[in-house]
Design goal:
heterodimer; A: 965 residues; alpha+beta; Ubiquitin-like (UB roll); FAD/NAD(P)-binding domain; 7 domains; seven-stranded mixed beta sheet; six-stranded mixed beta sheet; 22 helices; elongated; B: 81 residues; Folate-binding fold; three-stranded antiparallel beta sheet; two-stranded antiparallel ribbon
Chain lengths: 965, 81
């Protein structure tokens, strides 16, 4: 397709090269340097979207990220991305662009019939209308409304694009690269400050790229190019184009979304930039005027018209009406239009003189402007372009995000930010200094001030530019829809109605009308919204205030926020020292926290259930081995080690002798159980503690807190040795036979090495080892700990020597079955942060002879009260029906719809290969006094209700005789 | 937030674990009862202004550091050196 609206010359585009793209299937062309918007306009595509609520045709109001309505879906080879502003998308070859919110097509949209009902669907329409009948909301209304309303549709597939996150630090961060930003960055850079300048656009320069004006004797655009070149050569400056600063956080952190070149390693980078001073040079956004029909394609901000003409060499129309309140802006707009060969058919000094616009019969785009002449006479001018401006609105969103309150300035006729919000200093247009000289002076002055504050040079008192006064433009007149917010289809009448209905606070009016919501965040609408509200309320604009500004300032893709942390890259993957040999043994792994842990070791042709059954039976019958390396292991040495351990655990440890270990419970300060593990006493001044895999970091933090904040005077050293040891537990009736075969340097017969003991030495005369006689399976068991680097040597010896007893490696699944059969506790399922030692049936462990963390608050009445859930075992009465995991216990069977009183719940349930029937463990109100009682375990989710019998938590070998072999 | 670790200098919030306000817990000598512990642990009303808190610098010096922070502005008082 040709480009009928491309001017014969001018613009920062490369006319020698052609870029091909499609819009709703139609082939179109543009040039490098174009945005999607400028290319569409060059091709004569003036309507690009249908509006949110009324499905009115919409074109381009702006030329940059202020544009509220030209939202399109773009596929540039990295997935289909909806709701992009055509004015922000840098044109690239092969782009497939589709319009949104229309059916069957952009030109003939059935939804536009809604306009006929126009008056009916004003503010609050949904709240008032779809009330009755109630059931119809879900069945009909919501579906229909969702189908009609809204913007683009997201691509539900995985994001094919790659994203990343990075951090950066600097002394001075400059946001925006217009005259203010460039002046600030040059000043800071030449002053020697480490400087980062971020610009959302792909070119530096901001308004200098299209505004007339001279700087230092050269045209503004050339000065900008010069400045950009200058910054690029300085080693203390990082220039970041295509980088949107969208969020301002505590202590000088700014989040920046950077788009990268297509074909690069990543498509976007989320930067966390920490700066000591931030100069907010984000400029100002031109304010549209509110008059009937102000949303027609062809109605455009004067600055946008000038941008299309001068930066892109595109004529947004042929016959133009100018309605610009500021004299200088009006003069420049006329000059730019005439220089490009467009006809100016009328020039108005006040947009409020416009009484309406007329649209084409079929497409609705602008064909004429109706207005009042100087003498009050009604006039009509045939025009396809209306350049409007009711002044400028400073872009101070980032300052306001950190709580900096904006105040309405009567003279400047807009919201202005405070001079400083934390380390942020609004400059130039962002604080209402609107003329070129003022912006340049402001950027320079604030950079000097910032460097003075940072003691990078002597403090300098450089005056700031004065705030530019602006005229008031009265919004709207009667008749027709006069839009305040184009993106959300909020009209002046909607705002007035909200006030009439009592939503007279700015926050209420926003929610009721949706004014300033959506991706637009009120860039073009808030100033007019405030003026409209003020008028409806009969208050001054300064009394209206503003709503809360929140990040992101402009939309950011979810993928950018996520970065590379998707799928398996979400968290680090940790492998135990046995990973390689387990993998070679055919192990199936599962993630457990950050760990890849052995799940089971299937034989050929075996499924998971069969493998688990075989592994459990091997341990109960002869011998198995399991990885224990992920447990936390902490060493405590020093004269005060024993005292320190006594304070941390509720157990009585005064009787714990060197060479022995004990199962211990660690309580939180509030008396609830925090973690369980072993306490090994190697010597009177040397202990090793273990922590549950998932609690490793928090137990270490807890130890450190107690050590550093409460026992600072104690003489001891804490060391985390979790990474230093690989641990393999051998378990089963033949465990001692295997230990003997491994030739330890210490005696291992039952008299010499009883249960709950620890021995150090070597295996086979050369492999250094610590052996703990502990058991999680309930069988005779030894935990063999070797320095982590020797894990494979240990594995080899254990597997070779273990052949004599058919040693069977087992995984997490079998480990769990074995411990459920024994009623052993697991952190996270039973130790869930709500249990006292007594709830777990372990009150016998709690010492009454000493003080420890948690003792005092464990005595609180509620923790000692009758009726608490107690740890019990449960078996189905028929010994056959599997118990649903997580089932609830009550005295009656489950009836759909009924809500039986709950007596407790199951924490774990398995079919026990050892006992040959299903078993479960769980908590039951006063459970220990209810042995033999029959209850119902029901799971409405699984649709199961099973009669169960209460028994002790330990279902197998209750006397624990097997522990001793 | 940028947290001024007295050992490592200003570091990102992600490097720290929060430990709550500074608490004067009773000594573990068997004398304090549940009431005293409850008061110490769950605290009474706080006056405005900077609140002393403890932070654990797990990605740095592994120290529990005490810092005063204004909860309204997140401003840290300069750590004593």
């Amino acid at each position: 397709m040709t480009q009928p609206f491309r001017l014969p010359q001018g613009g920062l585009i490369d006319r020698a090269r052609l870029i091909h793209f499609t819009f709703d299937g139609a082939p179109m062309t543009g040039h490098p340097g174009d945005t999607l918007a400028s290319a569409l306009l060059a091709c004569g595509q003036r309507i690009v979207a249908r509006s949110l609520k009324y499905h009115r045709p919409r074109g381009f109001l702006g030329a940059g990220l202020e544009d509220p309505s030209a939202l399109v879906t773009v596929d540039a080879g990295q997935g289909r991305i909806p709701n992009l502003k055509a004015t922000e998308v840098q044109l690239c070859d092969g782009m497939i662009v589709t319009s949104q919110n229309n059916w069957p097509s952009l030109q003939r949209d059935v939804g536009a019939l809604i306009q006929i009902a126009g008056r009916g669907i004003s503010a609050g329409f949904y709240y008032k209308t779809f009330m009755w009948p109630r059931a119809a909301w879900y069945r009909w209304y919501e579906r229909i409304i969702r189908a009609i309303a809204g913007h683009g549709r997201i691509d539900a597939g995985a994001d094919p694009a790659r994203h990343d996150k990075r951090q950066a630090f600097c002394e001075i961060l400059v946001i925006g690269s217009g005259p203010t930003g460039l002046a600030a960055a040059l000043t800071a850079a030449h002053g020697g400050a480490t400087t980062i300048i971020v610009e959302a656009d792909f070119l530096l320069g901001g308004s200098l790229l299209w505004d007339q004006g001279q700087i230092e004797g050269m045209p503004a655009r050339e000065w900008a190019e010069d400045a950009a070149r200058d910054l690029a050569t300085l080693s203390n400056v990082t220039v970041m184009p295509r980088s949107l600063a969208f969020g301002h956080y505590d202590h000088g952190q700014v989040l920046v979304a950077q788009s990268c070149d297509a074909g690069g390693a990543v498509q976007s980078v989320l930067w966390k930039i920490r700066a000591r001073r931030i100069i907010l040079a984000s400029g100002a956004v031109e304010r549209p005027a509110v008059f009937p029909g102000n949303d027609r394609p062809g109605v455009m901000l004067a600055s946008a018209v000038r941008t299309y003409l001068r930066r892109y060499g595109v004529a947004p129309g042929r016959r133009a009406v100018i309605a610009v309140s500021d004299l200088e802006e009006r003069r420049r707009t006329r000059a730019d239009l005439e220089a490009a060969g467009l006809r100016v058919v009328a020039e108005l000094d006040d947009p409020s003189r416009i009484s309406g616009t007329s649209g084409g019969l079929i497409r609705g785009e602008l064909v004429a402007v109706r207005y009042r002449g100087e003498d009050g006479k009604r006039l009509r001018a045939g025009a396809d372009l209306l350049c409007v401006s009711a002044g400028w609105t400073p872009t101070a969103h980032l300052a306001a995000q950190m709580g900096g309150h904006l105040t309405w300035d009567q003279g400047a006729n807009c919201l202005l930010p405070a001079g400083a919000t934390g380390p942020m200093r609004p400059a130039g247009g962002a604080r209402g200094a609107l003329d070129l000289a003022g912006c340049l002076a402001d950027g320079k002055a604030l950079a000097h001030r910032a460097m003075g504050e940072l003691e990078l040079h002597v403090p300098m008192v450089v005056p700031l530019a004065p705030v530019t006064p602006q005229k008031t433009v009265k919004p709207g007149t009667r008749g027709g829809k006069a839009f305040v917010d184009l993106q959300n289809d909020v009209t002046q009448a909607d705002v007035q109605q909200a006030v009439r209905e009592g939503y007279d606070d700015v926050e209420l009016a926003k929610r009721y009308t949706t004014l300033g919501m959506g991706t637009d965040q009120g860039k073009t609408s808030w100033a007019n919204g405030i003026v409209t509200l003020a008028e409806a309320l009969g208050r001054p604009a300064s009394a209206i205030g503003h709503t809360t500004y929140r990040p992101p300032y402009s939309p950011v893709q979810i993928g950018t926020l996520i970065g590379a942390e998707t799928g398996t890259a979400m968290t680090p993957t940790r492998r135990t020292p046995f990973h390689r040999v387990f993998a070679a043994a055919g192990c199936v792994f599962q993630t457990s926290g950050d760990w890849l842990y052995a799940r089971y070791f299937p034989l050929a042709g075996e499924d998971m259930a069969e493998a688990i059954r075989r592994e459990v039976q091997a341990v109960r019958r002869s011998l198995g081995c399991v990885d224990m390396s992920t447990l936390g292991k902490f060493e405590i040495r020093g004269p005060d080690a024993a005292r320190f351990v006594e304070e941390l655990y509720c157990n009585n440890l005064s009787t714990l002798k060197p060479g022995r270990l004990r199962y211990g419970l660690m309580l939180r300060e509030d008396g609830l159980v925090f973690d369980d593990g072993t306490i090994c006493c190697l010597a009177a001044d040397h202990y090793v503690l273990s922590a549950t895999t998932t609690r490793r970091a928090s137990v270490w933090r807890h130890l450190q807190m107690h050590r550093q904040l409460r026992c600072a005077g104690m003489d001891l050293v804490l060391t985390d040795v979790s990474e230093q040891w690989a641990a393999l537990a051998i378990a089963g009736p033949e465990a001692r036979a295997l230990l003997r075969a491994l030739a330890p340097s210490f005696a291992c017969e039952s008299a010499d090495f009883p249960f709950a003991a620890i021995r150090g030495g070597t295996l086979g005369g050369d492999l250094p080892v610590r052996v703990l006689s502990v058991s999680f399976s309930g069988e005779l068991s030894y935990e063999l700990c070797v320095p982590a680097g020797y894990s494979e040597a240990l594995w080899e010896r254990v597997m070779t020597a273990g052949q004599a007893w058919d040693i069977c490696p087992y995984g997490l699944e079998a480990l769990d079955v074995l411990r459920i059969e024994k009623g052993h506790l697991s952190v996270g399922t039973e130790i869930d942060g709500r249990r006292t030692p007594d709830d777990l049936g372990l009150s016998g462990l709690v010492s009454t002879k000493k003080d420890f963390l948690g003792r005092a608050l464990l005595a609180r009445p509620a923790l000692q009260a009758d009726g608490r859930g107690q740890f019990v075992g449960l078996t189905p009465v028929d010994r056959a029906t599997a118990l649903p995991f997580g089932a609830h216990l009550s005295c009656e069977p489950y009836v759909a719809g009924a809500q039986p009183a709950l007596e407790g719940h199951l924490t774990a349930a398995v079919v026990s290969p050892t006992l040959g029937h299903p078993i479960a463990i769980g908590f039951l109100r006063n459970g220990r006094a209810r042995m033999g009682e029959r209850l119902w375990a029901h799971s409405p989710l699984a649709g199961v209700s099973v009669e169960v019998e209460v028994g002790p938590a330990c279902a197998f070998d209750p006397k624990g005789e097997r522990l001793h072999g | 937030m940028l947290i001024p670790c007295p050992n490592c200098g200003p570091r990102a919030e992600e490097e720290f674990a929060f430990g709550g306000p500074v608490r004067e817990l009773p000594p573990l000598d068997g004398t304090a009862d549940a009431k005293a512990w409850h008061r110490a642990l769950h605290g009474a009303g706080r006056a405005g202004g900077a609140l002393p808190e403890v932070w654990y610098h797990h990605a740095g010096c592994e120290c529990w550091v005490t810092l005063r922070r204004d909860l309204a502005s997140h401003a840290f008082e300069k750590a004593p050196t």
